[in-house]
């Protein structure tokens, strides 16, 4: 999966406002419930970890992208490029922000939920967001091109059969004025509220709330935020 390539183009995608709005929802929940000792799963370049640190919270981040974790380390954040099943500590809250569960196919999704349960203390919270069908079909798919002085980025996303395939191409200008080319793809999968609810309740979580959230659209909700609590 092209997560390392995505990490190289992400700073040019101008998602700062969306990141702020979504992180605000999660931070308000953390502060309102006076939560500490948090694991941010799929932490990316550590934006939410930074927010937690600024607010005096103890937090640890995991991500499968080595490049993303390098950025976290450069910021002085506590993060590792390890899979969730290698985490040995226990936490009072787990977050998974900006489509983390959509990057998982249905074969792995239940395993992930089980692994999340194992890294939480009894009564711990699991809070995450996923894209709605409307979000995938009407917002996520399409084409973006970014033409910069020393690079050119092309992103083409197609939603079909409940899967979004995003093809990323990055051209970097070399000293010879020729360009190097890097290409890769990312697959995201739509998971319905009903399917997720079934898996969560089957694997030791009680759903306290499912919030509809309009991140990119004033029409239908393009995201759902799940607030769950570990019961066993």
Shape: globular
Compressed to H and E, one letter per element, the order equals: HHEHEHEEHEHEEEEHEE
Q: Would you tell me the overall average pLDDT?
A: 95
Counting DSSP E segments of at least 2 residues, the number of strands comes to 11
Uncertain regions spanning at least 5 consecutive residues: none
CA-based gyration radius:
18 Å
CATH architectural designation of the largest domain: 3-Layer(aba) Sandwich
Query: Helix/strand/pairing class, anyone?
Result: alpha/beta
Q: How helical, in percent, are the residues? A: 25-40%
* CATH classification class of the largest domain: Alpha Beta
CATH topology of the largest domain: Rossmann fold
CATH superfamily of the largest domain, please? Vaccinia Virus protein VP39
Characterise the protein shown here.
Helix content is 31%, strand content 36%. α3 links the parallel β1 (38-41) and β2. The longest helix has 17 residues, at 16-32. It has two domains: 3-133 and 190-230, 3-Layer(aba) Sandwich (Rossmann fold), CATH 3.40.50; 135-189, Single Sheet (N-terminal domain of TfIIb). The relative contact order is 0.16. It is an alpha/beta fold and 232 residues long. The mean pLDDT is 95. A seven-stranded mixed sheet has the order 3-2-1-4-5-11-10, with helices on both faces. A four-stranded antiparallel sheet has the order 6-7-8-9, with helices on one face. It is built from seven helices and eleven strands.
């Amino acid at each position: 999966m092209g997560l390392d390539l995505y990490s190289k183009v992400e700073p040019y995608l101008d998602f700062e406002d969306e990141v702020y709005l979504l992180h605000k929802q999660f931070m308000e929940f953390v502060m309102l419930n006076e939560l500490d000792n948090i694991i941010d799963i799929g932490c990316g370049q550590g934006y939410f970890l930074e927010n937690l640190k600024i607010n005096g919270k103890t937090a640890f981040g995991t991500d499968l992208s080595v490049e993303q974790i390098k950025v976290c380390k450069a910021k002085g954040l506590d993060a590792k490029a390890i899979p969730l099943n290698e985490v040995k500590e226990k936490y009072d809250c787990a977050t998974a922000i900006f489509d983390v569960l959509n990057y998982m196919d249905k074969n792995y999704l239940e395993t992930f939920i089980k692994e999340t349960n194992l890294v939480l203390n009894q009564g711990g919270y699991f809070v995450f967001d996923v894209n709605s069908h409307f979000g995938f079909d009407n917002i996520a798919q399409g084409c973006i091109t970014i033409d910069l002085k020393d690079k050119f980025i092309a992103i083409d996303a197609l939603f079909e059969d409940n899967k979004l395939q995003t093809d990323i191409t990055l051209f970097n200008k070399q000293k010879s004025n020729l360009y190097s080319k890097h290409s890769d793809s990312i697959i995201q999968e739509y998971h319905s509220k009903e399917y997720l609810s079934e898996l969560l309740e089957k694997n030791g979580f009680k759903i306290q709330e499912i919030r509809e959230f309009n991140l990119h659209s004033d029409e239908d909700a393009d995201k759902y935020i799940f607030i769950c609590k570990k019961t066993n």
